[in-house]
C-alpha cells in the first residue's frame, strides 16, 4: 500500500487511446484458420449441434469460403463428410485420389491460389468403426495405421493441400510423413502436427457433423492424451518437432491454454490451438439463450488464445471474428 496514491494502475486504463497504446496482445485476421466440412452431394446443410456451420457440397464450396477469403483469412482447414456406403473398416476412401477432400482442394486452389489449405490426416471420417487408424484385434494398431496415414498424406499433398495436419496421434507418424513427402520432392508441403491432442468430450459436435459418433466403438483413450497430463504434452511436442513438424497444435483450446503456454514458452515454435466443436457449440448455445454477448465474448476468447501464446487459432468463429475485426477497424 505504501506507493498508493503515487502509483495508480487505473491511469493507463482511463482513455481509449491509452488502453490501445498499452495493449500487449491483439487478435488480427492473420491469426485465424477456419475449419469447414465438405461433402460430395450438392447443397449446403446446417449442422444441428453447430448452428452457423455447414456441411458444404462441392458445388457450393468455392462460394462458401468467398467472404472469408475476401476478409483476408489466411487458411482454411478441410474436413470430409463421407457417405455411409463409402466407409469401410480400412478407411479405403481416404486413399482415393478423387475423394471429396482432393476434389475440394482442386476447386479451392483454382479459385483462390493464395489461400492456405490444411488437410486433416486421420481415418475416422472414412471408417465404419470411427477410429483414426487401423483396428486389429480391437486395438488401433500404431504401425499399420502409420503406413496408411502416410499414403493419405501423400494423396492430399499431391492434390494441392499446403499443410498436412495429422490429427491421429499415432507414434512416429510425423517422421514417416516427412520422409515420404521429401521422397516425392514435396519438400515445401508443411506439417502442422496435432502434437498434444487430448481424448476430450469436447469433440462431440464434430463427430455429429461427420456422422461418425454413432459408429465410434469405445473411445480414443489408447491414442489421444489423458486430460490429466501436461508434462506428457511437452514430450509429444518435442518428438514431433524432432520428427520434422513445422507447426504444433494443442487441442482442445480454451480448457487447455495451460498446455499452449508451456509449449510456447518451452519450444518457441509456431504454436496453434484448436477451439473445437464443443467449445463453439457451448458458446453458441449461450448466445442463443441471450446469456452471453457474442459481440464481446468471441473476440475476448480469441484474445485469450493469443495471450496464452498461440500464433494462430483454428476456430469455427473465424468468419464471424474476421467480420467483427473488419468492422472494428473501420
Ligand atoms: C479426428 C478429429 C477430431 C477433430 C478433428 N479431427 C475428432 C476426434 O478426434 O474424434 C475434432 C474437431 C472438433 O471437435 O472441432 N481425427
Summarize this structure briefly.
The chain has 330 residues and is of the alpha/beta class. The chain is built from twelve helices and twelve strands.
**Using only CA atoms, what is the Rg?**
20 Å
Helix content percent band: 25-40%
Mean pLDDT level: 97
Can you tell me the residue ranges where pLDDT is under 50 for at least 5 consecutive residues? none
Give the neighbour order of strands across the main sheet: 1-4-5-8-9-10-11-12
Q: How does this structure look, described?
A:
The chain is α/β, with parallel strands linked by helices and 330 residues long. It has 12 helices and 12 strands. The protein has helices at residues 16-22, 61-64, 66-71, 100-111, 142-159, 173-183, 204-209, 231-243, 257-267, 277-289, 294-308, 318-329; strands at 32-39, 44-47, 50-57, 75-80, 116-121, 135-136, 139-140, 163-166, 190-197, 247-251, 271-275, 312-315. The strands form 2 sheets. An 8-stranded parallel barrel has the order 1-4-5-8-9-10-11-12, surrounded by 8 helices. Helix 6 links the parallel strand 8 and strand 9. Helix 8 packs across helix 9. The radius of gyration is 20 Å and the shape is globular. The chain starts with 15 loop residues before the first helix and ends with a helix. Bound molecules: ligand PBG.
Amino acid at each position: 500500500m505504501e506507493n498508493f496514491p503515487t502509483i495508480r494502475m487505473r491511469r493507463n486504463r482511463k482513455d481509449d487511446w491509452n488502453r490501445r497504446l498499452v495493449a500487449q496482445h491483439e487478435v488480427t485476421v492473420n491469426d485465424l484458420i477456419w475449419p469447414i466440412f465438405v461433402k460430395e452431394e450438392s447443397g449446403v446443410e446446417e449442422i444441428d449441434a453447430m448452428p452457423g456451420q455447414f456441411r458444404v457440397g462441392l458445388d457450393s464450396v468455392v462460394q462458401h469460403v468467398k467472404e472469408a477469403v475476401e476478409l483476408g483469412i489466411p487458411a482454411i482447414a478441410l474436413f470430409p463428410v463421407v457417405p455411409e456406403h463409402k466407409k469401410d473398416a480400412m478407411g479405403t476412401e481416404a486413399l482415393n485420389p478423387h475423394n471429396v477432400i482432393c476434389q475440394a482442394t482442386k476447386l479451392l486452389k483454382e479459385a483462390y491460389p493464395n489461400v492456405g489449405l490444411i488437410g486433416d490426416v486421420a481415418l475416422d471420417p472414412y471408417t465404419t468403426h470411427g477410429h483414426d487408424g487401423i483396428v486389429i484385434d480391437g486395438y488401433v494398431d500404431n504401425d499399420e495405421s502409420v503406413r496408411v496415414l502416410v499414403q493419405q498424406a501423400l494423396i492430399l499433398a499431391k492434390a494441392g493441400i499446403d499443410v498436412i495436419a495429422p490429427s491421429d496421434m499415432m507414434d512416429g507418424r510425423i517422421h514417416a510423413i516427412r520422409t515420404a513427402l521429401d521422397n516425392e520432392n514435396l519438400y515445401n508441403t508443411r506439417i502442422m502436427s496435432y502434437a498434444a491432442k487430448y481424448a476430450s468430450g469436447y469433440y462431440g459436435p464434430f463427430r455429429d457433423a461427420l456422422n461418425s459418433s454413432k459408429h465410434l466403438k469405445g473411445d480414443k483413450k489408447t491414442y489421444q492424451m489423458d486430460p490429466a497430463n501436461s508434462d506428457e504434452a511437452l514430450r509429444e511436442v518435442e518428438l514431433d518437432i524432432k520428427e520434422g513438424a513445422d507447426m504444433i497444435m494443442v487441442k482442445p483450446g480454451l480448457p487447455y491454454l495451460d498446455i499452449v503456454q508451456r509449449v510456447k514458452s518451452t519450444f518457441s515454435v509456431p504454436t496453434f490451438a484448436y477451439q473445437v466443436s464443443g467449445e463453439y457449440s457451448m458458446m453458441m448455445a449461450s448466445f442463443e439463450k441471450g446469456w452471453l454477448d457474442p459481440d464481446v465474448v468471441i473476440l475476448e476468447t480469441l484474445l485469450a488464445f493469443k495471450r496464452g501464446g498461440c500464433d494462430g487459432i483454428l476456430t469455427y468463429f473465424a468468419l464471424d471474428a474476421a467480420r467483427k475485426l473488419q468492422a472494428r477497424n473501420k
